[in-house]
Write a structure and sequence with these properties.
The structure is a homodimer of 244-residue chains. With 244 residues, chain A is an alpha/beta fold. The first copy, chain A, has nine helices and 13 strands. A five-stranded parallel beta sheet of chain A has the order 3-2-4-1-5, with helices on both faces. Chain A has a five-stranded mixed beta sheet with strand order 7-8-11-9-10, with helices on both faces. In chain A, strand 12 (227-229) and strand 13 form a beta hairpin. In chain A, helix 3 (57-69) packs across helix 4. The first copy, chain A, is elongated. The interface between A and B is large, with 79 and 79 residues. Strand 7 of chain A pairs antiparallel with strand 7 of chain B.
């Protein structure tokens, strides 16, 4: 009948939108990665649950689309925004294999926006969002995007900066960024945005390569104007500078 | 006492988060651009209001910080996310001129995420967000960012694609993008995201320069993999392609 691909925001709690909450209330079946189902199952106790482990993305979306094609009202839950490295595109792709169903995407607060709010205001000018995971993207393409964005003085937001199998990827990314950005460029890291144990740190680009990051960390690299105001990472939009 | 810089999401209604709504309920004084105050004043009827017209951003933030320094609980309301071309950075900058106050940023659904959900799933791979407004940024810098992002095959999301004084800026941007992206690259425009009269259209990059856009439109330009699936703009993340 219908699949709603729903963004929970960073923690699945107060940062969820009213529209996301209403969609979860309306659905019969919640489908998602186990950790995301765990974030919401207590808030929506009377739902049927279908959770699968990591790397089972295609199975999960097929199950959701199959249930909808069989007449059920389904919500695929994603952390953050399903449209940013989430399941939204895969649901559309998989649905081509089945009879027509209705699909809607309900946006959520993605880690770029949620993490920026914790750090201060790093993204108030042009920015680029790049995932450092090379599971689905050749590393050469990631390198080209890092270099292109750094050369054009974008603020950068990096998702998936490290994992157990990729402990040195942030260091490799920093080496590329340092060819185009000054070593004193202000950077920030946020871990567990909107969840218990949320932590945020500022450092310079020269120091960022050695920062402790993992798969729960989002990384921000400033542009040439970004600065530290009382411990916050702030990229001026230019209003005050226009006033002179 | 405290300034909360609050994102209303695209329409100030169902896409607002629980945290944003709670912050507006707690505050005494709502400060913002007239059009954004109008979006929420009926939902929070017992608040004092301070609204100012366009281009009064610095005055607005000074008034908010002054009221907080005088002991009041203030919310600065922004459409979308205050951290993306919003007031978050300016509040931090202006607050340096006053005695210390507490500042918090409460993120909202920005037009990139809200518009993407309307179009389908264009942002499910690396993307760059660029404002075409040259009120605060030299056009040469905007051009360099368009070229850098296009050359590295980012999906692009363009804010402020046109205004009465800049009717041809999207055309100028497309001319730059066409040096690096194929003319058949899938593009999309969304107007009045989450508001009455919301409209979405798909076209090619060759056609985008002639598309009807205004200051209420957000523009999306696909990467080399973005495609039209049953009228939706979808950028594959690569899960199905990995399956082979």
């Amino acid at each position: 009948m219908k699949v709603s691909v729903v963004g929970l925001g960073p923690g699945g709690g107060a940062d969820m939108t009213g529209r996301a909450r209403a969609a979860l209330e309306r659905c019969e079946l919640l489908v998602g990665y186990t950790a995301y189902i765990d974030l919401v199952k207590d808030q929506f106790p009377d739902k049927e649950l279908l959770s699968t482990g990591m790397r089972r993305e295609v199975d999960r979306c097929r199950a959701a689309v199959e249930a909808a094609a069989a007449g059920r009202r389904v919500a695929v839950v994603c952390s953050g925004d399903p449209g940013v490295y989430g399941m939204a595109s895969l649901v559309y792709e998989v649905a081509q294999e089945y009879p027509p169903i209705e699909i809607e995407v309900i946006p959520g607060i993605t880690a770029a926006c949620g993490g920026a709010a914790v750090l201060g205001a790093p993204l108030t000018h042009d920015f680029a969002v790049i995932s450092l995971s090379d599971l689905l993207t050749p590393w050469e393409k990631i390198e080209a995007r890092l270099a292109g964005a750094a050369a054009a003085d974008f603020v950068l937001c990096l998702y998936n900066p490290a994992s157990r199998s990729r402990p040195d990827y942030l260091k490799r990314a920093c080496d590329i960024l340092l060819r185009h950005k000054a070593p004193e460029t202000l950077c920030g890291t946020v871990r567990s945005i909107g969840r218990p144990g949320e932590t945020a740190r500022l450092c310079t680009l020269a120091e960022l390569g050695e920062a402790e990051v993992d798969m729960f960390t989002t990384v921000f690299v400033g542009n040439s104007q970004t600065r530290n105001i009382n411990g916050k990472m702030v990229t001026p939009r230019g209003y005050l500078q226009r006033e002179g």
